[in-house]
Write a structure and sequence with these properties.
The complex is a heterodimer of chains A (118) and B (114). With 118 residues, chain A is mostly beta strands. Chain A contains no helices and twelve strands. In chain A, a hairpin with a 6-residue loop joins strand 5 and strand 6. The chains are: A mainly beta (118), B mainly beta (114).
């Protein structure tokens, strides 16, 4: 069955430090998609990145980077030189492309609340 | 402007009084979904729809109903709300009939069932 684990419930770092948010997933399928979403204190949910299971290249977008490792079933998110505006809850999510079970659910992790302290 | 619109944004009601939360998207998206967000539990999918007249249960469908009569609308119905349905609800839509595309979320509806 699908499962997404974000073991870090809450993290606090001082501004300008680097921080990594962990995401570990479980799936039976060989084709699947992983996502990260951000929920700032204002409450909206914002899409950050999508990665399919065949693309293990790491991605960098400004201060954000993602490390996808199929060998460890992980899709970790690093913020470099963190800023107060990065304070938010971050969710990792999984979608399986081959619907052997017949369903098409999306499974979210429980989220990691990140506090960037000035 | 491309958006997912939920109404109402806030609602306080009493146990057993039927309510509907509307959701509408203007992006011609096929996949639509409802989630609830509870402290410590993250986002959990309630129902989803891959297209008109096609709906399926997510992980926590008990106590909820949905319908998809038009592509743009996906209302969430609580026929007999109970206090354990007090939560923050999000509607979302995405391109294509499957869940493998980024979700566009509404602003959320905070429901309190007394």
């Amino acid at each position: 069955a699908q499962k997404v684990t974000q073991a870090q419930t809450e993290i606090s770092v001082v501004e300008k430090e680097d921080v990594t948010l962990d995401c570990v997933y479980e799936t039976r399928d060989t084709t699947y998609y992983l996502f990260w979403y951000k929920q700032p204190p204002s409450g909206e949910l914002v899409f950050l990145i999508r990665r399919n299971s065949f693309d293990e290249q790491n991605e960098i977008s400004g201060r954000y980077s993602w490390n996808f490792q199929k060998s460890t079933s992980s899709f970790n998110f690093t913020i470099t030189a963190s800023q107060v505006v990065d304070s938010a809850v971050y969710f990792c999510a999984l979608s399986e492309a081959i619907k052997a079970s017949g369903d098409d659910k999306i499974i979210f992790g429980k989220g990691t609340r990140l506090h960037i302290l000035p | 402007e491309a958006q997912v619109t939920q109404n109402p944004r806030y609602l306080i009601t009493v146990t057993g009084k039927k309510l509907t939360v509307t959701c509408s998207q203007n992006m011609n998206h096929e996949y639509m979904s409802w989630y609830r967000q509870d402290p410590g539990l993250g986002l959990r999918q309630i129902y989803y729809s891959m297209n008109v007249e096609v709906t399926d249960k997510g992980d926590v469908p008990e106590g909820y109903k949905v319908s998809r009569k038009e592509k743009r609308n996906f209302p969430l119905i609580l026929e007999s709300p109970s206090p354990n349905q007090t939560s923050l609800y999000f509607c979302a839509s995405s391109l294509g009939p499957y869940s493998n595309q980024p979700q566009h979320f509404g602003d959320g509806t905070r429901l309190s069932i007394l």
